[in-house]
Amino acid sequence: MKHSFPQMKIRLPPEVHAHAKEMACRQERSLSAHIVFLLRQEMEKEKASGASLATTPDASYQ
């Protein structure tokens, strides 16, 4: 099935990629589907807490 969702490329450290791929495999998801699942979980957490992106630190600087 072809999707018309926007695509993006990201750079992941090898250990992060390996971990995400392993977790996706364990949960019988594609890597892409697992990343979408994780992002949606974070979106739900943010919605539930009422937090905004402006008040959260940028993870890329950690």
Write structural notes for this entry:
The N and C termini lie far apart (37 Å). It contains two helices and no strands. The relative contact order is 0.07. Helix 1 (14-26) packs across helix 2 (31-49). Helix content is 52%, strand content 0%. The protein has helices at residues 14-26, 31-49. The protein is globular and about 30 Å long. The model has no long low-confidence stretch (mean pLDDT 87). By secondary structure, the chain is an all-alpha fold.
Total E-strand runs: 0
What's the shape? globular
How far apart, in Å, are the first and last alpha carbons? 37 Å
How large is the count of helical segments?
2
**SS content category:** mainly alpha
Describe, in short, the structure shown.
The chain is an all-alpha fold and 62 residues long. It has two helices and no strands.
Q: Helices, strands, pairings?
A:
Layout: H1 14-26, H2 31-49
Keywords:
mainly alpha, globular, 0% strand, 2 helices, 62 residues
